[in-house]
Design goal:
single chain, alpha+beta, five-stranded antiparallel sheet, 19 helices
């Protein structure tokens, strides 16, 4: 108890001594002293470039442009900074009025983004973000000039969210490219972005996106509050943020969704959700998220609604097969053989004869082997990984059956489970946990163990919230208005309201009664133009 209290006191002491952002040093009027301050902060790294030159305005003034090689666009520095200051400034006699830095900013620089600052922390952060800093001898202020131009990946289709008939573009690692792609999808002035920097060391740019007038302002405020309370050294990926802002951090079910598609992000924003962009990753977080979103796919809205409904049923079936099939197999073969048809039972008994391990051990062991093969296939290079996944599964499965270590029905069940688990990729991680837990309960209690496991899972799901929204809505609690996109996918013209639990501040998203007119109703109408009748 004493150690626990001391440990808690130590953690509290560390929290009190957490570093705060200092105001920082001020610039001097001497150029060499200012450059010495930058060298003190940035060191003598070879990628820190200091370009000295002479500025001829009032008189010959020593000046310097400081930037980091690889983060800037060299052409912008030449065309918009060095050329105007070194060449254009000498061509005519400038009547410099007021502060020299203000005159340079207003009359010579041709860059869009220019900020004036006199404190080192802001200027150093600008340099590390890809800007260039202009220093002039005799001035105690500097200009942070936007010259970002690092290499970036081109726009490609996401590997994890491929569609058949939908758009082929996905987010990249550049946050400005991602926000621009979203602007193309939603050409509405109500689309707002709020940017902040999170991470004491990484200073990662994070943007909150929402559509004003549709989103609930309390949701935006809650997202903003959770992000601002994050105090960490680094944010390198979207998952870093999601673990800090999740409603249930110990729950295996995700309460913050992920996507790499601009069309999916746009659709969620127009339903009243909030998106969180993180610079350096193509993954975007969206909140709140619901359990049923895992079974929805962008292609559901690109195909006919009847076919989309059938495919959605297949996803529900595959999900339940992926978590229940091994458990049902263990329960039936161990405790409830009377439920198996007699010819099938005889065939299974013959196949399992001579196998030295209990059924539950066989299922767990084969499941572990499959996960090892899957992980090896994912981590290795694509050609080698595919070969290992296919050949390894065939060889190991055939060898274990031939050696009598595992029965053939067990291999079939694990193979079907593996295929079914890939149908709903967003629930693959939780599927592994549920599958393993239900299999152990089935080995101990049979069908009663499966019922207990499912009941505990259902109780946990009903208790979850995602930014205040029930995780199982619109099923629990039941919302009749929102059942048009749950079990079935109704026609788009019938989904005239937004989800009640998310976008209810402005529920109507399209006109009512836009169903296509049948041919019988339009029969006998004159479709000719008025100009045709004049002839």
């Amino acid at each position: 108890m004493i150690r626990f209290l001391l440990r808690k006191f130590g953690l509290a002491h560390l929290r009190k001594e957490s570093p705060s952002t200092p105001e920082g040093k001020l610039l001097h009027s001497d150029l060499e002293e200012n450059l010495a301050l930058f060298r003190e902060e940035l060191g003598n790294s070879p990628d820190v470039i200091i370009r000295r030159f002479t500025l001829n305005l009032r008189n010959e003034l020593k000046s310097a442009v400081l930037f980091i090689d690889g983060l800037i666009d060299q052409q912008v520095i030449y065309d918009s900074i060095l050329y105007p200051l070194m060449i254009e400034a000498k061509k005519e006699k400038w009547a410099v009025k007021g502060h020299l830095i203000d005159f340079i900013e207003d009359n010579l620089l041709t860059v869009g983004g220019v900020d004036k600052d006199d404190r080192m922390p802001g200027l150093v952060a600008a340099v590390l973000a890809g800007d260039s800093v202009l220093l002039v001898d005799g001035c105690d202020q500097a200009l942070a000039i936007s010259t970002k131009g690092w290499e970036k990946r081109s726009i490609t289709e996401p590997d994890t969210e491929q569609t058949i008939k939908g758009p082929r573009e996905g987010f990249t690692e550049n946050i400005r490219t991602n926000t621009a792609m979203l602007r193309r999808k939603i050409a509405d002035p109500g689309l707002k972005f709020e940017q902040m920097k999170i991470g004491e060391r990484t200073r990662t740019k994070v943007s909150i996106a929402y559509v004003k007038g549709i989103v609930n302002e309390k949701l935006v405020e809650e997202v903003r509050r959770r992000l601002k309370r994050i105090n960490t050294d680094m944010v390198l990926d979207a998952n870093y943020l999601s673990e800090f802002i999740s409603d249930a951090p110990f729950s295996p079910f995700p309460t913050v969704a992920f996507t790499e598609r601009p069309d999916v992000t746009a659709a969620k924003l127009l339903e009243g959700r909030v998106a969180i962009f993180v610079d350096g990753t193509p993954v975007v977080n969206t909140a709140p998220t619901l359990f049923i979103e895992s079974f929805q796919n962008p292609d559901d809205y690109n195909f006919h609604f009847l076919f989309a409904t059938m495919i959605r049923w297949i996803r529900y079936l595959a999900f339940f097969l992926g978590i229940l099939l091994p458990a049902f197999f263990v329960a039936l073969t161990t405790y409830h053989q009377e439920l198996i048809p007699t010819p099938l039972l005889i065939s299974m008994a013959a196949a399992m004869e001579g196998v030295p391990f209990p059924i539950v051990i066989e299922v767990v062991a084969m499941g572990a082997v499959f996960e090892i093969l899957r992980e090896a296939g994912v981590r290795l290079a694509r050609p080698i990984g595919q070969t290992i996944s296919i050949v390894g599964a065939l060889v190991i499965g055939q060898a274990t059956v031939a050696a009598g270590l595992v029965a053939a029905p067990t291999v079939i069940v694990i193979a079907l489970t593996a295929i079914a688990s890939f149908v709903v990729p967003t629930q693959q991680e939780i599927g592994i946990i549920l599958r393993l837990g239900l299999t152990f309960l089935a080995g101990i209690l049979g069908a009663y163990g499966i019922l207990v496991g499912l009941l505990l899972t259902l109780i946990h799901l009903t208790s979850l919230r995602s930014f205040g929204v029930p995780y199982l809505s619109p099923v629990i609690p039941l919302s009749i208005e929102d059942q048009k996109d749950v079990i079935v996918r109704t026609p788009l013209w019938a989904m005239w309201t937004r989800p009640r639990s998310i976008g209810w501040p402005r529920p109507i998203r399209q006109g009512f009664g836009q169903s296509p007119t049948s041919p019988e109703e339009t029969a006998g109408k004159d479709w000719s133009r008025p100009d045709d009748k004049k002839g």
